Amino acid sequence: MNITIFESNEALDRQAAELIARTITERPDAVLGLATGSTPIGVYRALISLSAEQRLSFADVTTYNLDEYVGLPPAHDQSYAYYMKQHLFDHIDIPLAQTHLPDGMAQDLAAECVRYDQMLENQPIDLQLLGVGHNGHIGFNEPAGQLVGGTHLAELEPATRAANARFFEREELVPQQAITMGVASILKAKHILLVARGADKAEIIQQALCGPITTAIPASLLQLHANVTVLLDKDAGKDLMQHDSSLHLVHS
Ligand code: F6R
After folding, report:
1. Percent of the chain with pLDDT over 90
2. Distance from the alpha carbon of residue 231 to the mean position of ligand 1, in angstroms
3. In 1-145, beta strands by DSSP E
4. For the whole model, what pTM was predicted?
5. pLDDT value for 252
6. Contacts for 145-150: CB closer than 8 Å, 24+ residues apart
7. What is the rounded average pLDDT of the residues 75-96?
8. Residue 25: its pLDDT value, please?
9. pLDDT tens-digit profile of 110-166?
10. Res 23: pLDDT
11. CATH number for the domain formed by residue range(s) 2-250
12. How confident is the model over 167-191, as a mean pLDDT?
């Protein structure tokens, strides 16, 4: 695992954007796995500026998002489809037909999960961007005795709904379910880029990256992957730095 801890969020975002840009430069038809939530917003902003500076084209890139709420149409301002357009797709030259999210409005949600997995099978992900929940979830793979490998319907934990309530008018409006890629789908990506920021993520980052590999902390399964890059701000990295004295802050 390659871990870097940044003094500033700007430097973190820039580094994440550079990694994504490099993936596209090396392979213009790269397949990117994308995430939503508050963590990637700065990364997408940096990627938009970087691609303008470097005249990077997304014309042949394909994207797959980790997850989508069940019951929110793409035009709903809290759907992940809406988020992706707002924070990335509307600002780059990617054809929308090459962008994919699970369809949380599908009549047959089980069939939708199979369809999504089939597409992922046909187009393996080159680089998967991930955030992490306070409870260690990745995508909506919540802590549990057993985890599901493929794309599936997930019941959201009360803590996750409470954390996401900040984006909704009231907590009751946060959907109860989501479709999410499973842990096996995530681990199939050739390269995983995990980003976390904020002191509230410090403990879970330390547990996930240095503690036992356990389904009780789904992000700990990332320890099984051979090519993971972790980018943290100084607050999210503070417990790790205490644990591992070889880790230092990067100042620029
Ligand atoms: C979002 C996702 C979630 C988030 C996680 C962290 O697509 O899959 O796992 O990455 O909930 O959310 P933030 O970034 O809002 O702290």
Report:
1. 88
2. 15
3. 2-6, 31-34, 62-65, 67-69, 99-100, 127-130
4. 0.96
5. 64
6. 145/215, 146/215, 147/182, 147/183, 147/215, 147/218, 147/221, 148/182, 148/183, 149/182, 149/183, 149/184, 149/185, 150/113, 150/117, 150/181, 150/182, 150/184, 150/185
7. 97
8. 96
9. 999 999 999 999 999 999 999 999 999 999 999 999 999 999 999 988 988 998 888
10. 98
11. 3.40.50.1360
12. 94
Active site residue 171: no
Distance CA 160, CA 35 (A): 15
- CA 244 to ligand 1 center in whole angstroms: 26
Taking CA 189 as the corner, what is the angle to CA 9 and CA 49, rounded to the nearest 5 degrees?
Answer: 35
Exactly one of 9, 10, 91, 135 is catalytic; name it. 135
Q: Which atom of ligand 1 is nearest to the CA of 130?
A: 10
Tokens for 133, please give them: 């929940």
Where helices occur in 107-220 by DSSP H, the ranges are 109-122, 158-164, 183-187, 202-210
Is 232:156 a contact under the CB 8 Å cutoff?
A: no
Check if 131 has its Cβ closer than 6 Å to any atom of ligand 1: yes
Structure tokens at 29: 């038809």
Residue 101, helix vs strand vs coil: coil
- Cβ-proximal residues to 20 (8 Å cutoff; 6+ apart), any chain: 32, 43, 47, 127, 129, 193
pLDDT tens string 161-173: 998 888 888 889 9
Catalytic residue selected from 142, 152, 164, 233: 142
